[in-house]
Amino acid sequence: MPRDADKAALHATFDLLLRALAPPKPGAAPGAPSGGSPPPDALVTAYQSAKRSIRELATRDPFDSVVTIVGTGTVLFYLAERGKNDKCKSLFDALTFITTCLSVGYDDLFARTPAGKAIASFVMTVGPQLTASLFDPPRSDVDREAERAAALQRAVVDRLDAILHALSTPR
Q: For the segment 92-103, what is each residue's pLDDT rounded down to a tens digit?
């Protein structure tokens, strides 16, 4: 559950975003704040729910997450840029661009369309972390190993308790 300070920070962030995206009031000076009401709790709740879902998907199997980002990002970037970007002539051009966004970020191809820029921004934001966890085991394997380790620790504690009991019992 988020702390009050976290919730306040989310409210302030969404408030700024909504004000920046809101159309200006008629007669207001250009660049003047648009006013309006603060973001509803439902927006903050939806954001927190989406964040949990995305984290769940990313950690379920990191390898699958990277493959999904590469495949989906490649197709979406190609569709957004083809015909509008002379450097994006094939799916392989888009693939090269997206895969470099996941790591070093170097290519001679740059996003030219708003959709291409949004896709590139998303991939550049989440890509390096996903790539860093590419060979981590799936969460189910980690959970299974944690359960096995906990069971082993319980067995050790039980054995130590039995030894302590045997040592403290008078003979």
A: 999 999 999 888
